[in-house]
Amino acid sequence: MGDCNTSTDERAPSVEDDITVVFHKVVNHGRNNGHDHDDNECGDAERVLLRGNCRGDDVEEGDDAEGKEEASGSEDLLEGGKKKTLLCPPAFCVRRANTSRGGSAGQDAEKPKRCPGLGLFYAFVSTVFFSIIALVVKTIQGLHAIEISAIRCFFQMLFVVPLLIYHKTGFLGPRDKRIYLVLRGFIGSNAMILLYYAVQQMPLADATVIMFSNPVFTSLLAWIFLKEKCTIWDCVFTVFTITGVILIARPPFLFGDHLRGIEGNYWNHIKGTIAAFAGAVAAAFTFVVLRKMGKSVHYYLSVWYYAVIGFIECLIAVSVLGEWKIPSCGRDRWMLMLIAVLGIAGQTFLTKALQIEKAGAVSLMRTVDVVLAFFFQFIFFNRAPTWWSLGGALCVVASTSGIAVRKWYISSRKS
C-alpha cells in the first residue's frame, strides 16, 4: 500500500504540461501479496486528465499532434479504469499568453524596420530638385516665363499618362472632386508661372525667399476657408513674413532712391517682388484646395489636372502676348526637358516625404531651399546678397520655421 502513495518522479509539473491526477480506490481481495505487481496492489484507478484550454490558433501543428497523441493515449488506461478530461481554469492559461507573446514578437521581428531619416531624406532631395529648377529657369535667356511653364506642363503630361494607366485612376477623377481638381490645376499653374517670372526679374535668392513664405499664408487661408484654428502665433508669424518681404523689396518711400544689390532697374525688381508674393499666395491657395480634397484623390491625378490646365492656360497666354519662340540653342532645349523631369521627381519625393514624415519636419527641411538659393546665386551669378536681403530672409525663414515647429509640437502631443 505504501508503494502506491510513493512518487518516483519528483519533478514539479510546469504550467505548460498537461496534469494527470490519479485517484486510487483500494479494494481488498484478501491477502496482500508483496510480490504482486504494483498495479494489482493499487486496484482500480480513476484518472482525471486536466487538459489545458489554452491552445490558441497560433499553436503549431506539432503541439496539436502531441495533444492528440496524449488524448488517444489516455484512453489506453488500466483495465477497469475511468478517464475524465477537464478544462483548466483561466489561472492556468499561461501557455497561451506565452505563445501569443512569442507570436507577436515574431511578427514584429518580421516587419521591415523603417529608416528613421528616410522621410527627411526625401524632403531634402525634393528641395534640391526645386532649387535646381529655379536655377535652370534663371539661366535660360530669351524665353518668357509662360512659355517655359507651357513646356514643363507638356512634358509632365507625357510622364503622368503612363502612371495614370498603371494605377488605373482614370483621367477625370471622382465626380464630386472635379471642381477642386480644376481649381488645383488653375491656381497651381498660376503659382508656377509667377515664380518663374519672379526669378527672371529679380535676384534668385530674393524670389525664392518670398515664395518660401507660403506656409504663413496657408495658415491664414485655412482659417478663412477651412475654419481651422488661428492663434496669436499665426498673426506674429505673418507680421514677420511681411517684414521680410518689405526688407527684400525695399520700396523707395522707406529706403530712398539709391539702392544697392538690385538686378536690372528697380521697376523690374518691384514686378518680380509682386509676382513672387502673388505666387506665394497662389501656392497657399493650392495647399488649401489639396487639404479640402483630402486623400480621396490620387496624387498623380492631381498632377495630371495641374499639367493639362496649366498647358492650356499657357498656350492661350503665349498666343495672346505673342511670346512663342523656339529655343535657338540646343542647350536650352535640354534644359527645358530637365525642368520637366526635375519637376516630376521633386513632387514625387515631396509626396513620399509627407507620407512617411510629419509635415512639420518636412517644412523645416524645406528651409534648405533658401540656403541653396543664396549659394547658387553666389556661385553661378557672382552676386553676393545684401544685408537687407539676408535680414528679410531671416524674418521669412524664422516665421515659416516657427509655424513648422509649432505644428510638429502639437502633432507630437496628440500622438
From TrEMBL:
Q: Which residues form the EamA domain?
A: 118-249, 271-403
Return the annotated region ranges for Disordered. Answer: 58-78
Q: Which UniProt keywords apply?
A: Cell membrane, Endoplasmic reticulum, Membrane, Repeat, Transmembrane, Transmembrane helix
Q: Which Pfam families match?
A: EamA
- What residues form the membrane-spanning segments? 119-137, 149-167, 179-198, 204-225, 232-249, 269-290, 302-322, 334-351, 363-381, 387-405
Q: Set out the biological process GO terms recorded for this chain's protein.
A: calcium ion export across plasma membrane; regulation of cytosolic calcium ion concentration
InterPro entries cross-referenced by the UniProt entry:
EamA_dom
Query: What does the record say about its membrane topology?
Result: Multi-pass membrane protein
Cellular component per GO, a single term:
endoplasmic reticulum membrane
Similarity-based family: Belongs to the TMEM20 family.
Subunit structure, per the record?
Interacts with STIM1; stimulated by depletion of intracellular calcium. Interacts with ORAI1. Interacts with the plasma membrane calcium-transporting ATPases ATP2B1 and ATP2B4. Interacts with ATP1A1, ATP2A2, KPNB1 and XPO1.
Described function = May play a role in intracellular calcium sensing and homeostasis. May act as a negative regulator of plasma membrane calcium-transporting ATPases preventing calcium efflux from the cell.
The entry's protein name is: Solute carrier family 35 member G1
